[in-house]
Amino acid sequence: MDSNSVILIREAINMAATFSAALIGSLLTGVFILLGAYIAYKGGLQTYFKKREHEQIIKRYLEEGLDRASACFDHATGVFTDNYRTALHIVREIKVDEKVNLSSVNFRTSEQRYFDVTPWFKISHLVGDIIFWRLFQLFFAFVDAKTLWFDVDFRSTVAQVLNGKITLPKEKLLDEIKNKLDEFYEESNKYTCILHELQIMASILEKETTITWSALSKFKNRPEIKESVEKLKQIFDELKEKDSKDKQKQ
Q1: For residue 70, which of 188, 224, 191, 183 has the smallest C-alpha distance?
Q2: Which of 235, 237, 239, 238 is nearest to 227 (CA)?
């Protein structure tokens, strides 16, 4: 083998080595690029699913749960408050000898669509107890009962006062009606705790940025949630006891 052949062989070997090194380098670079892309994709996908999970929880338990429940409570509260103010205004007008046209007086009634079970069951799942639903049922029953009283008993008594068909002095009878209205109003205030506790829970969820289903299952274990549940249970027992005593008096 002459010197030229040796040189050619060496050059061929060097070229092969250089090509192999370049090929391996390119392959490694490609692998790292693909690995980086996969990691970025995987991380982005996980971020997307976490965001999606958070949005679903907020929609289901905040918008369709707590917010809807608050709207139901606001409606029931508005019905009672409007009727209470209407009745109080009538009593005050009669006291100053103003003429009252009872036929033009319309007391509000609660709309059945606001007696919505679904949001309260979502809340029950959230707090691990049905006390919010039970107390709201009691409040809705209270509002309906008082609406009936306004439209029947109150209207009938006022009509008798206006017609002079009463056995008691007018002032005394009007004072008794006023006291009755005040009792109703004081009792209605006891139910405002429902809205207060709903707002506390809503505030907690609103501050959450990445809540997950597994974290949501532990929501009921938060100290403030346990405190809300116990507070409503105590109020519920007090109201049920009062309702039982009132029925016994009747």
Answers
A1: 191
A2: 235
Among 23, 45, 58, smallest CA distance to 205 is for 58
CA atoms within 13 A on the CB side of 140: 19
CB 207 within 8 A of CB 58: no
Are 198 and 73 in contact, with CB atoms under 8 Å apart? yes
Count CA atoms within 13 Å of residue 92 on its CB side: 7
Phi first, then psi: give them for residue 108, nearest 5 degrees.
Answer: -75, 150
Tens-level pLDDT at each residue, the chain (250 residues): 555 454 444 554 555 445 455 555 565 565 555 555 545 545 555 566 567 787 888 899 999 999 999 999 999 999 999 999 999 999 999 988 778 888 888 999 999 899 989 999 999 999 999 999 999 999 999 999 999 999 999 999 998 888 887 777 888 899 999 999 999 999 999 999 999 999 999 998 888 877 888 888 888 999 999 999 999 999 999 888 776 666 666 5
Residue 105's contacts (CB-CB under 8 Å, 6 or more residues apart) are 86, 90, 155
CA distances from 5 to 14, 15, 17, 203 (A): 14, 15, 18, 85
The residue ranges of every structural domain in the chain are 53-249
The structure's pTM equals: 0.77
